[in-house]
Specification:
Blueprint lengths: L22 H13 L15 H19 L11 E3 L4 E3 L3 E3 L5 E3 L18 E9 L5 E6 L11 E4 L6 H13 L3 E12 L4 E10 L16 E6 H10 L25 H10 L10
Parallel strand pairs: 5-9
Antiparallel strand pairs: 1-2, 3-4, 5-6, 5-7, 6-10, 8-9
Helix pairs in contact: 4-5
Enzyme class: hydrolase
Family: Belongs to the Nudix hydrolase family. NudC subfamily.
Keywords: Hydrolase, Magnesium, Metal-binding, NAD
Amino acid sequence: SDHGDIKGHPYFAIDITPKGNHAEKATQFLEEQEKKGLSLDKNPRAMNQSPEAAALYAQARSIIDWNTRSPFCAGCGLPNLSVHAGYKRVCPPADKKGGASSELRGDCPTRHGVSNICFPRTDPTMIAAVVSADGTKILLGRQKRWPPHWYSTLAGFLEPGESIEESVRREVWEESGVRVGRVVIHSSQPWPYPSSLMIGAIAQALPGDGEKISLNDKELEVAKWFSIDEARQALKNGTSSLGEPAPEGYKEGDLRLPPPQAIANRLITAVVEGYLTVAPKM
């Protein structure tokens, strides 16, 4: 190979979620392993894994979820098979039914070329930190189920045929009523629940009525403009994962934000550090 001698370390992922006909056996297996000293991360969304472990978990969870959800061929509806260590599902030309003989299947479009339905899916999702027209405030929202005073940036799925910039403008307007003009793509982060790719952006609201908040689709309980200083202070002593208590030094009633491992935190940090200038350079 032109790349030299390539060697890797194999990792195997097993779905041991207690469910269906295997619920009792899976529960028993987990209990036995815990008695042997195996530590189970029962809340991986808490984002307390190392970067290496998080990357392995994200890939494994997405692949397992896709295989679990895709037992039938999307081209013809017949059962398919998992191959390539779970990275592809194929619709075989024949079925074996209890013996050596095979029964031919009908034609399937997936056998006539590369088909995207045969490979793991990734769902592009925008997530945006929106700043006011004058750059002094940041727009944040919260869902009802979140802890008190815990806010984050706005997010949503891209629609077919939509650019990232268009998606940011649409989603921000749908969720908050705020109208966005300039959109700058900042960074990205995989989110395996089940298979999203979070595409982070920093956006700027249009002046005047463009900054008016109106909760159109009720997805958010509240959307508010916070000063940059409030966001800066929250980044210092108000960050925590969902389900975790506020950190030491947090003053009750102040703004709380996602932890540093989350792309929402990275976007808010970029805004606070002046990533987006009020007047574009181009």
